[in-house]
Design brief:
Layout: H1 45-58, H2 79-85, H3 88-91, H4 103-120, E1 124-126, H5 132-149, E2 157-161, H6 167-174, E3 178-182, H7 192-198, E4 203-208, H8 221-230, E5 234-239, H9 251-254, E6 258-261, H10 263-266, E7 281-283, E8 296-298, E9 303-305, H11 321-357, E10 373-376, H12 378-384, H13 388-397, E11 404-405, E12 414-417, H14 425-444, H15 446-451, H16 463-468
Parallel strand pairs: 2-3, 2-4, 4-5, 5-6
Antiparallel strand pairs: 1-7, 6-7, 8-9, 10-12, 11-12
Helix pairs in contact: 2-11, 4-11, 5-6, 11-14
């Protein structure tokens, strides 16, 4: 295992030297200064570079290999996005500059907003939210402001399907709502009869992902949105799975009133540690007056920053600007037909893998899927003792990142697989062969899977010990 940067430290080593002081030295009050030297690693530049290069080799990302993480859509990030976002006119401006000096940046944001409106069928977008869950919270605050403005104060409940992303009920609760779970039917969609029973004049909204976390498009979506609207509620679209339908179907045409998008999923911007992310929120016209302060609104003469009854500012300035530029680059590179083809390829790849694996890994809900599918390892566990986690650990030894495990919760021993549109048939065929080989090992030599991974810097972790006694910081030798 590699040494920590602190363990490479040697007193007196430096990466650089500070220039001589050329301004007046200001002494701070002793009460404001620290009494001990900070524990900062002292290393040479070559050691520092090698340290981070080694860390990069240990990290698995979309540039390293196949990353079929269901629901999170870890697809390749085109390098042209990075080139565009690094242009001086984007990367070297400051959000406090006068608007007249950054017209190009403002126009780019307006162009992205317009493109997202076209893709989703919404009437306006705010680019402020920093990620998908942040966008959810923003959308729920918009819904709350809408009902408050209408003096419809009795609407205190939000309906969430039992297959929803875990952030949905969390966002609703943070916005002050009580969360009511709506069960799925035997085909994996929303149980319409259960929805009817849950609707009342106390319901503010229904939060829905379509296609859902099972990778299924709900054929009852128009009836579902109609029922919610007839009850006086609004319909919220969790845009995490837009990657399956962009250019083919639009949430606005399905009856959704507000939508958040994960640009780091659908529009190929960096995800996770490579972020920051971005979770723009789009709305129908009835919610435009409540958009956050700092939302761009195009007028005949210029782009203005205003809202009539804003919910406040969701973050500083205009959001993660350079991430949004990456998404705009992706959209302009592909064009409308390209976006549609990306969705079609995502659906094709998922159905191909599902068809090739379903004889060994039972599909949770039978039928054509969209961009992802969910299999159950329950039968494998019952017959061999090998769990979904064991399968996932074994995949690491083959250089494949595991799919999402144990989600959605309504499927026992679940593996959620999303190959994305950016993978070739050869990559998919190898992954299929590996999963079939792992299935065979479960019956012939299960101990190999129970011991996996063998090739990783960190081997099989004791989950209970790690949870109860996590090591969260480095303590220098001799320190208390």
């Amino acid at each position: 295992m590699s040494k920590l940067i602190f363990e490479l430290s040697s007193v007196g080593r430096r990466c650089s030297e500070l220039p001589p002081l050329d301004v007046e030295l200001i002494e701070f009050d002793e009460a404001l200064t620290r009494q001990s030297t900070p524990s900062i690693p002292e290393v040479a530049e070559v050691d520092l570079v090698r340290h981070y290069m080694e860390l990069s080799r240990q990290a698995f990302g979309v540039d390293n290999g196949f990353y079929p993480l269901g629901s999170c859509t870890m697809k390749y990030n085109p390098k042209i996005n990075e080139e565009t976002s690094s242009l001086a006119g984007f990367a070297q401006i400051h959000p406090l500059q006068p608007e007249s000096t950054v017209n190009g940046a403002l126009q780019s944001m307006d162009e992205l907003s317009s493109a997202l409106c076209e893709v989703t069928g919404m009437d306006a977008f705010t680019l402020q939210p920093s990620a998908g869950a942040h966008g959810e919270f923003t959308g729920l605050l918009l819904i709350h402001a809408y009902h408050q403005h209408r003096n419809d104060l009795k609407r205190t409940k939000v309906l969430v399907p039992d297959s929803a992303h875990g952030t949905n009920p969390a966002s609703a609760a943070m916005a002050g709502y009580s969360v009511i779970s709506v069960p799925s039917n035997d085909k994996g969609g929303v149980d319409v009869d259960a929805l009817k029973s849950a609707l009342s004049d106390e319901v503010a909204a229904l939060m829905l992902t379509n296609p859902n976390t099972l990778g299924l498009f709900d054929p009852n979506i128009l009836e579902i949105s109609r029922l919610v609207h007839e009850a006086g509620g609004l319909v919220y679209y969790d845009g995490a799975n837009l990657n399956a339908i962009m250019g083919i179907a639009r949430p606005g045409d399905m009856g959704f009133d507000v939508v958040h998008l994960n640009l780091h999923k659908t529009f190929s911007t960096p995800h996770g540690g490579g972020g920051p992310g971005s979770g723009p929120v789009g709305v129908k016209s009835c919610l435009i007056p409540f958009l956050p302060k700092g939302t761009l609104h195009p007028t005949e003469k210029k782009l203005t920053v205003s809202s009539e009854f804003p919910i406040g500012r969701m973050r500083s300035f205009y959001g993660n600007f350079l991430t949004n530029i990456r998404a705009l680059t992706y959209i302009l590179s592909l064009g409308g037909e390209g976006l549609k083809e990306a969705s079609e390829n995502a659906v094709l790849n998922a159905n191909y893998m599902m068809a090739k694996l379903s004889d060994l890994y039972p599909v949770a809900y039978v039928g054509p899927c969209m961009h992802e599918f969910v299999v159950s390892c329950q039968k494998l566990k019952d017959e061999t003792g090998i769990t979904a986690k064991d399968v996932s650990k074994a995949l690491l030894d083959y250089g494949i990142h595991p799919p999402t495990m144990y989600f959605p919760n309504i499927v026992h021993e679940a593996l959620m697989i999303e190959p994305t549109e950016t993978e070739s048939k050869e990559t998919l065929d190898r992954a299929i062969d590996v999963l079939r080989e792992i299935h065979a090992l479960a019956y012939s030599n299960p101990q190999v899977l129970l011991d996996a991974p063998k090739t990783m810097p960190i081997k099989r972790v004791d989950d209970v010990l790690a949870a109860r006694h996590p090591i969260l910081k480095y303590t220098p030798e001799g320190a208390q």
